[in-house]
Amino acid sequence: MSRNSDLKDEFDFEGELPPTLDRAAIDRMRTVARVFDDFMRVPGTDFRVGLDPILGALPGVGDVISAGLSLYLVLEAARLGVSFTTLLRMIANVSIDVVGGSIPVVGGIIDAVWKANKRNIELVLEDLAHDPLDDDFDNDPEVVEIEIE
Predict the structure, then answer these.
(1) Using CA atoms, how far apart are residues 82 and 10, in angstroms rounded to an integer?
(2) Dist CA 25 CA 87 (whole Å)
(3) For the segment 79-98, what is each residue's pLDDT rounded down to a tens digit?
(4) Chain centroid to CA 34
(5) Residue 48 carries which DSSP code?
(6) Which residues, 6 or more positions from 8, have their beta carbon under 8 angstroms from its beta carbon?
(7) Greater model confidence, 84 or 109
(8) Alpha carbons 144 and 113: distance in angstroms, whole number
(9) 73 near 123, Cβ under 8 Å?
(10) pTM score over 0.70
(11) Were both Cys, which of 28, 111, 126, 141 would link to 101 (CB 3.0–4.6 Å)?
């Protein structure tokens, strides 16, 4: 089984990654996402949770630790060369996770359901699989008006 098919099975990802991509970085990011979002299955269900909602139970420090490790994914994605827009979307996902997770009582549920790290891995994979050189600019006719006075 190829490494791309492993990613396709684990994440909502259908693209092909460039052969020059740092696969070790993707594997590290994948491990962080798995541990924080999908570490264990809830007994009697198909739902999986990670350490994120468990850390969120620690007042104050739990969400800070979780955010720090989630931001590692953002830094690794930047090192891999994802677009600025993707980095902003990743930071938004982490922000939603931290703010939602810090709400008393329901924060743990939000942490368990939002899965910011898994979402961020999918954003990275889609961004890295997209080749900007494949964009076909000829299909979009552009009208240019020149006014001469």
Answers:
(1) 20
(2) 16
(3) 999 999 999 999 999 999 98
(4) 11
(5) E
(6) 14
(7) 84
(8) 48
(9) no
(10) yes
(11) 111
